[in-house]
TrEMBL record, chain A:
One of its GO terms (biological process) is tetrahydrofolate metabolic process. This is Sarcosine oxidase subunit beta. Signal peptide: none annotated. NCBIfam families: soxB.
UniProtKB/TrEMBL annotation, chain B:
Residues 375-454 form the SoxA A3 domain. GO terms for molecular function: oxidoreductase activity. PANTHER family: ANAEROBIC GLYCEROL-3-PHOSPHATE DEHYDROGENASE SUBUNIT B. This is NADPH-dependent 2,4-dienoyl-CoA reductase/sulfur reductase-like enzyme. Keywords: Oxidoreductase. Residues 5-309 form the FAD/NAD(P)-binding domain. It comes from the Bacteria. Pfam families: Pyr_redox_2, SO_alpha_A3.
């Protein structure tokens, strides 16, 4: 693996950047692996990387129906934060945030993690009370989150309109300073590169069509477009396609798949220093390094596997943005896109063992799993390697939907992020 | 939301003819077009052009007048100045007029959004003073503006027409630089019988060439390695022809390597396309009535495959008849009776195409530009960078977006799309069909946030996920 350093960058700059080698080889599947991971998104690739780097398991294949990072990993608005309400969730997301801190160094790959702060706007007394509750609960869990007055919010994000005449006046905001954004593709590429360098095969353009089980019920491998691949352990990390993939193993998952949309404007000079979210008016916005405003919308009201999504949602989101940031009214929208997100009834993920021997799942991250990428990868690798969950993901079982021990983050996840 | 029987995007010959035919059968028609006046590219402004300019533009231009005047039918609503920016498979179009967005839906939908000039990525093509020959023609048709000291370069019959129009206007091009070779002409010879069937078009072309000869416009054939030179703006066109490198000083370079279907709308709809090797472009799949695999959605005119104005008009009429029959306003037997002569003329008019396609292929630089040449102008991505993406494992244009942002600017690949596909196909040893094309996202033309916001019903939506 090429090591990126000031020296190697300089050397390649002098030769016009023409001599960089491929960062991961194109692999063809072997007949058998110790572990097969379905889905080469950030989560699946992260799991492969940690299996190899922390557990010494390198006979691993990550299989994707498209190209790596081409799913939700490459489609999301990259908001990273950990100010969730419940203890279990706060631990889960904060674990990921800790890993983000050092990820570029660990992978020797710049994932452009930028702690620019995520500010959530309160528009009503109800919002304020619920945010204050979040702030107190977060602080008890050691998660940073603080309250800003409207003037403080405006100072933190100058484009914000805090005049009271607005239909949605800003009555304050909750700010997590450690939160921010990262470059989505780079996360997938960095993990892919690190995993491949340790011997993991990344097999692209190869849909997994079924999971096969033996007479004893245990997993025996996966059926793919490139033939059957044997594996005693299979981990499914296929986001919006999870329920379809697991159906072939005879499992019905409590997941609904919805299109979630985002859009970008034309690029402009840096004018927006942080991430702003508004749950009430349902919109969130940041500025990419390229200069585009990145605006996130909501999920469609109905389930679907089409990667588009309806116009009314975009209208609604854009109306909200124009309301809170009138200065953006004349900016032009360049394009919108969608991804299929997998949503659980309690809006928390399912990460752990399944009631089939050798089968593991990481799904249900819904509208907000990018922020968890390093954490999810790390915990999935642990669970697969040890065949038991890490204490952090132990509560996030499938069984909670039968026992009733839900982790109801519907409020924290009320806005798609 | 407005609803009509037949909704047509594009008021060129195909759209206008379809509107007339459908309205004649009693259908309520709406015709959207970005331009202020009907006509499309070929008959641009034909209803408003002053007589002197019409004379320059010639009889093939004036022939569009009756079509445009046909839009006076009260059943046809022509919505000018309308930029369509979102088109859905349920046949709804979101469009904006004067900064106000609106929705309209058709029981049938015709996409007649015509052709684009094939972009010509040669070194220096991004310099001021370089434009496509068609752009120069628009300036002439719409505003009576003519380029001075211009060289016109590329290949294809339209090149002769535009050059001839410049001669008639009193500003002949300094030179006509053609990239097609004698070999191309030889390759076209087997298609000669078709060309003879389509002798009318051939005669027109030969007439334009004769006009250029009379005017003494120098012709360079088989030109290779075109490059625009200049510091800050175009000052000369360099080329190799007849084994000799030469430089022609000029102020304007007009490039033209033929036209290709404008597939932004049909790609946005997710319609299947196939690579047409003869025309070196993607074409949406459709049947003989222009109907695509999406029920009730048709294509006609150059957007369905390059055929020229007359083919466009005929294919538009067929869609009009088909729509009328599908909506129960025309007996199928009557439809077929009216369609029969149209199909016959269509076959005759199309007969000349294989000859023209073979004789005037796009120059080698257009689909395989040199490494240093910018291909995606919006994001400034060179051909060499795209080849480097391929070496790093990039198989198709959508993956290329993640690698280097090609196609992610405001034009969404209208400029670079075909070149990016062709470069990746060549580098990966795949066919263009396997390589695929950019996924086109709404809006196909940028719209302001305020326009979209104004469409939203008031009141926040509380029960979002
Ligand atoms: C518009 C949008 C905005 C978002 N914004 C944010 C945000 O701001 N912050 C945040 O934290 N999260 C956000 N998310 C959510 C986030 O993107 C996801 O939760 C996260 O990326 C999931 O990662 P993943 O690796 O599990 O999924 P993916 O990247 O989708 O990976 C799953 C992979 O599985 C593959 N696959 C599926 N089926 C098969 C099969 N049968 N065979 C083989 N491979 C298969 C897919 O091709 C895909 O590559 C957003 C999502 C969307 C769509």
């Amino acid at each position: 693996m090429t090591h990126f350093s000031a020296r190697s960058l300089l050397k390649n700059a002098l030769s016009g950047h023409k001599d960089w080698p491929a960062q991961w080889p194109e692999s063809q599947p072997k007949a058998e692996y110790d572990v097969v991971i379905v889905g080469a998104g950030g989560h699946g690739l992260g799991a492969a990387y940690y299996l190899a780097s922390q557990h010494g398991i390198t006979n691993v294949a990550v299989i994707d129906k498209g190209w790596l990072g081409g799913g939700n990993t490459g489609r999301n608005t990259t908001i990273i934060r950990s100010n969730y309400l419940y203890d279990e969730s706060a631990r889960l997301y904060d674990h990921a945030l800790d890993l983000w801190d050092n990820l570029s160094q660990e992978l020797n790959y710049n994932v452009m993690y930028s702690r620019r702060g995520v500010m959530m706007l309160a528009h009503s007394v109800h919002d304020e009370q619920s945010f204050q509750r979040h702030i107190h609960s977060n602080r008890l869990n050691g998660v940073d989150n603080c309250w800003l007055t409207p003037a403080e919010a405006k100072a933190f994000c100058p484009p914000l309109d805090i005049t009271a005449r607005r239909r949605f006046p800003v009555v304050g905001a909750a700010l997590q300073r450690r939160a921010g954004t990262a470059r989505h593709d780079a996360v997938a590429w960095g993990y892919a590169r690190g995993a491949a360098a340790r011997g993991v095969d990344i097999i692209q353009n190869c849909p997994v069509t079924a999971i096969r089980r033996g007479p004893d019920g245990a997993v025996t491998g996966v059926e793919t477009a490139k033939g059957f691949i044997r594996a005693k352990k299979v981990a499914v990390s296929a986001a919006g396609s999870t329920s379809v993939v697991l159906q072939s193993a005879g499992l019905r998952m409590p997941l609904e798949s919805y299109p979630l949309q985002a859009l970008v404007s034309e690029p402009v000079k840096p004018c927006f220093p942080c991430v702003v979210m508004s749950n009430t008016v349902h919109a969130y916005i940041s500025q990419s390094d390229k200069g585009e405003l990145v605006i996130g919308s909501g999920t469609d009201q109905y389930v679907s596997y089409s990667q588009r999504g309806g116009l009314p949602l975009i209208e609604h989101t854009v109306a909200a943005i124009c309301e809170v940031f009138p200065m953006f009214r004349r900016m032009r929208m360049l394009r919108k896109w969608g991804g299929i997100v997998d949503v659980t009834p309690d809006r928390s993920p399912i990460l752990g063992k399944l009631p089939v021997k050798g089968l593991y799942v990481n799904c249900g991250w819904g509208t907000g799993g990018f922020k968890a990428t390093p954490g999810a990868g790390h915990l999935l690798a642990w669970t697969v390697a040890k065949d038991e969950p890490h204490p952090i993901n132990a509560p996030f079982t499938l069984e909670r939907f039968t026992t009733g021990r839900l982790i109801d983050e519907a409020a924290a996840a009320a806005v798609a992020h | 939301m407005d609803e009509v029987d037949l909704l047509i995007l594009g008021a060129g010959p195909a759209g206008m003819a379809a509107a007339a035919e459908a309205a004649g059968a009693g259908l309520v028609v709406a015709l959207l077009d970005e331009q202020a006046r009907p006509g499309g590219q070929i008959y641009r402004d034909v209803t408003a052009v002053p007589p002197a300019r019409a004379a320059i533009l010639g009889p093939e231009y004036r022939a569009g007048r009756p079509l445009a005047e046909g839009l006076a039918d009260p059943r046809i609503r022509h919505i000018p100045g309308a930029t369509a920016w979102k088109i859905d498979p349920d046949r709804t179009i979101a469009y904006s007029v004067d900064g106000k967005a609106a929705l309209i839906r058709g029981r049938r939908l015709l996409i007649a959004s015509g052709a684009l000039e094939r972009p010509v990525p040669i070194p220096g093509w991004t310099l001021p003073g370089v434009m496509t020959a068609g752009a120069a023609q628009i300036l002439l048709k719409q505003s009576g503006i003519l380029p001075r000291r211009a060289v016109i370069a590329g290949s294809g019959p339209l090149l002769y027409l535009i050059a001839a129009q410049m001669v008639r206007a009193g500003t002949p091009p300094l030179a006509l630089v053609e990239t097609q070779t004698r070999g191309d002409l030889l390759a076209a010879l087997p298609h000669l019988p078709g060309a003879i069937r389509g002798w009318r078009s051939m005669a027109k072309g030969l007439g334009w060439i004769a006009e250029l000869k009379r005017a003494g416009v120098p012709r360079h054939r088989g030109a290779r390695d075109l490059a625009v030179d200049g510091a800050g703006r175009a000052e000369a066109l360099a080329l190799t022809a007849g084994g000799r490198r030469r430089t022609i000083p000029c102020e304007t370079v007009l490039l033209h390597e033929g036209v290709v279907p404008n597939i932004q709308a049909t790609r946005l709809l997710g319609l299947p396309h196939r690579w047409d090797q003869a025309q070196r472009c993607f074409v949406p799949r459709h049947d003989r009535w222009g109907e695509t695999p999406l029920p009730g959605i048709h294509v006609a005119g150059d957007g369905a495959g390059i055929g020229g104005a007359l083919v466009a008009e005929l294919s538009g009429r067929l869609v009009g008849l088909c729509a009328a029959a599908a909506l129960g306003r025309l007996d199928p037997v009557e439809r077929d009776r009216r369609a029969a002569p149209l199909f016959r003329t269509l076959a005759r008019e199309r007969a000349v195409r294989p000859f023209l396609d073979a004789a005037y292929p796009p120059g080698p630089q257009t689909l395989s530009p040199a490494d240093g040449t910018i291909v995606c102008r919006c994001e400034e991505v060179t051909a060499g960078e795209i080849r480097r993406h391929a070496r790093l494992g990039c198989k198709g244009p959508n993956q290329a977006k993640a690698f280097g942002r090609a196609g992610m600017g405001p034009c969404q690949g209208r400029f670079c799309g075909l070149a990016v596909t062709a470069i990746l196909a060549e580098a990966n040893g795949q066919s263009p069909d396997e390589t695929g094309y950019f996924r086109i996202r709404p809006p196909i033309k940028p719209v302001t946030l305020a326009e979209i916001a104004a469409m939203a019903p008031t009141g926040p939506d509380k029960d979002s996920a």
